[in-house]
Design goal:
Elements (H helix, E strand, L loop, with lengths): L18 E7 L6 H10 L5 H14 L1 E8 H18 L4 E6 L1
Helix pairs in contact: 1-2
């Protein structure tokens, strides 16, 4: 039986996944302590990092909590909204493409 050898050149284009920035927005009702707790619990920030982001949110109206793939960013936004709602705060979390 004849042996057939074939060379196939294929180029796989593997793109980096699109990244999304998760933002918390300032409001007049959510306590600073709650925001710090969210940053430490959901976004795994240290106390120093969480306080710095909380101050940024307070001063500028919003602050970046992290940059993630779509599914992770969406999950973190949902977690923030659920915790805020269950705690009686109107804290707004959004995501935007980087």
């Amino acid at each position: 039986m004849a042996k057939i050898e074939e060379e196939v050149e294929s180029i796989l284009a593997i793109d980096e996944p699109t990244k999304y920035r998760v933002l918390l927005h300032n409001d007049d009702y959510t306590t600073m302590d709650f925001v710090v707790d969210i940053l430490m619990g959901i976004f795994h920030k240290s106390l120093v990092q969480a306080e710095a982001i909380m101050i940024e949110i307070h001063k500028t109206g919003k602050g970046t909590c992290g940059i993630f793939t779509y599914e992770i960013a969406e999950t973190k936004v949902h977690q923030v909204r659920e915790l805020a709602k269950n705690s009686g705060f109107p804290l707004l979390a959004t995501m935007e493409e980087v």
